[in-house]
Design brief:
The chain contains five helices and eleven strands. The protein is an alpha/beta fold and 333 residues long. The chain has a single domain, classed as Rossmann fold, CATH 3.40.50. Strands 1-2-4-3-5-6-11-10-9-7-8 form an eleven-stranded mixed beta sheet. The chain is globular, with a radius of gyration of 19 Å.
Amino acid sequence: MLRRAWPTLSLLVLMFASTVLCAEDATLVFQPNGAAKGKSIVLISGDDEYRSEQTIPQLAKILSSHHGFRCTVLFAIDKHDGTIRPDEPDNIPGLEALDSADLLIILTRFRNLPDSQMRHIANYVDSGRPIIGMRTATHAFQLDSSSSFANYSWNSPDGGFGRSVLGETWISHHSQHGKQSTKGLLNSDEIGHPILEGIRDGEIWSKTDVYETRLPLPGDSKTLVFGEVLSGMLPTDAPVAGAVNHPMMPIAWVKTYKAANGKSARVFTTTLGTSEDLLVEADRRLLVNACYWALGMEKQIKPNMNVSLVGNYHPTPFGFGMFIKNMVPSDFR
């Protein structure tokens, strides 16, 4: 167990819900208008490869505008000028929002946060509230040995936050990174799971490669989607022949995590998560459905729920050092 052309104003309100820039201009809040679900979601970005600073705000807009969730988006912030710096590993302001959150969504990579920030994450994990991990969240943290939360590090003896909470830590790329893409095949044994509602076999696709996992996954983990390695970077490319697809690695699964207070938290993990994944409707549906399930609202999942993109969304490809410079959180309104 871990420790702890400009539209009118009225049209903008309709499209985006209301947006409030919070303390120190570091936190972005999407507050739904009208009847809300009464649930608060905190979404944490912070990686320098897969463009989580683009993925996370768009996902928050979808969850707020179409589904009535109050969404707080956090970023890796340059401590000197307040701009978004995904390559700055030790500063994500606003984590105190987790103290009152109902759901945590995390897409970070090798963060070395100070104790004052990590404490909010650890307190949330210890509380038994639900968690969704995306892509590099399996190796979300790489903390100094002096940290009070060093056992959250991906390379700690028990696999840290990734292995203990989400179900796996970083091992390796299972297929050729940047050359082979991934098609999602539904696990026939879990076809009736609420998270798969409205998703057909083969609709899930990602330009990112499959991550290696140790099989079977730990505890009560259940694989929902397997990753078929494709020979190229298009969804129409043929599967790779041979051992790489036998067996296929999981790319989406559910499990529970027994928290410090004894509660069993619902956990959903997917190794999808590049900003371009949100261009695929089935990928968006998987994530939205997962939020409902994690919050215990699975009876409200419908196969035709609105998961459309909100506003203009033109994500940049994944790659190190390719983030757009001099952006601040308010740019994602």
